Amino acid sequence: MIRIAQQHRRYALSTIAVLALGSFSALATTAAHAQAAWPNKPVRIIVPFAPGGTTDILARALVPDLSAALGQQFIVDNRAGAGGNVGADIVAKSPGDGYTLLMGTVGTHGINRALYAKLPFDPIKDFVPITLVAAVPNVMVMNADKARQMGVKNVQDFIRVAKANPGKLNMASSGNGTSIHLAGELFKSMTGTYMLHLPYRGSGPALMDMVAGNADVMFDNLPSSMAQIKGGKLTALAVTSAERSGALPDIPTVEQAGGPSLKGYEASSWFGLLAPAGTPPEIVNRIQQEVAKSLASPAMKERLMAQGAIPGGNSPAEFAKHIDSEHKKWAQVVKASGAKVD
Questions:
Q1: Nearest Cα to 130, choosing from 271, 244, 239, 336?
Q2: Is the peptide bond before 260 cis (omega within 30 degrees of 0)?
Q3: For residues 72 and 70, what is the distance between their CA atoms, to the nearest angstrom?
Q4: Which of 23, 38, 178, 335 is buried most deeply by CB count within 10 Å?
């Protein structure tokens, strides 16, 4: 009787083990299938600035190709505030499932760690880099009517007027900590000028005030200012890159136009896709591959380069290295400019 009971017990235990193993295998298969099926619902791309700026322009340029290639709708979701930190924080705290992405910038992932006393997220630990989307110069622009009224035709004219009127000119930006803000702060520190900083919730609102004549100068990302420059509403004084832009070949660099005080001046911008930490490598690589294909197409290349943007598409590892080098570079720029945001 005892032997029979033991046999029944061994049989029961083996049956439980088989059932448990079967359940585990089923769960693993289901999880793998769910991951392989990505995306099976719409994907959000958080743009941490208001509509109308370069971050928004680039995200919306990618959406049609990504939606077509991956069979699900990609949606741009503008979440502006705190120099891009509001939108970046939303993504940092989202699940790493491939359904929430960030169009990050040199501000959110290169500048803000050095500029802000405290961030609600870690730009390195809380994100997985996917790919650089584009690099662009900034452009120093003035309201065209104001430039004529002040007699400003070039950068040296502007420096003369600014020094003669300390604190009377204002400088618009897309928000505290953005490359647009820091490009202006670096200009101020190198030239010994002072303009009141007017931070907006993105380039779009700032440009509206520039065109309306409510702001005097802005170091905007070139793509978002291009239409207003070509339309004669804004006067381009210089580009902030080390070399002239092919989109505005007649416009000098700040260094070329500014004289000895601006020797070595350079403050360009970049934009790239990132996902929350923990996003599976298969999903990250799939997005990178499709973005790279889109950016390599002749139509997209022509569209971006006409606006002054240089298409990217590098690997996640290469983009991670770029972000690391930008952290180091901009920490030095922030220190030299003396800019801080509490």
A1: 271
A2: no
A3: 6
A4: 178
Query: Which residues lie below 8 Å from residue 308, measured CB to CB, with a gap of 6+?
Result: 136, 137, 139, 222, 223, 226, 239, 245, 246, 247, 248
Rg, Å, the chain Cα set: 25
Q: Which of 329, 273, 313, 323 is nearest to 101 (CA)?
A: 273
Pairing of strands 170-173, 196-199: parallel
**pTM recorded for the entire structure:** 0.81
Q: Which residues contact 117 (CB under 8 A, 6 or more apart)?
A: 340, 341, 342
Beta strands across the sheet bearing 234-239: 196-199, 170-173, 217-221, 138-143, 234-239
Give me the percent of the chain exceeding a pLDDT of 90.
76
Per-residue tokens: 305: 């380069």
Residue pair 108/84 in contact by the 8 Å Cβ criterion: yes
DSSP 8-state symbol, 66: H
For the stretch 102-126, pLDDT in tens is 999 999 999 998 889 889 999 999 9
Alpha-carbon torsion, ordered 87, 93, 97, 101, to 10 deg: 10
| 3-class DSSP assignment, residue 153 | coil
Q: What is the mean pLDDT of residues 249-276?
A: 95
Q: Are 326 and 109 in contact (CB under 8 A)?
A: yes
User: What residues pair up with 276 in beta bridges, in sequence order?
Assistant: 127
Question: By the 8 A CB rule, do 320 and 129 touch?
Answer: yes
Structure tokens at 117: 């006393």
C-alpha 47/C-alpha 62 separation (Å) is: 12
Evaluate whether 127 touches 92 at the Cβ level (below 8 Å).
yes
Please state, as a whole number, how many other Cβ atoms lie within 10 Å of the Cβ of residue 65: 18
Question: What does the block give as tokens for 320?
Answer: 């991670």
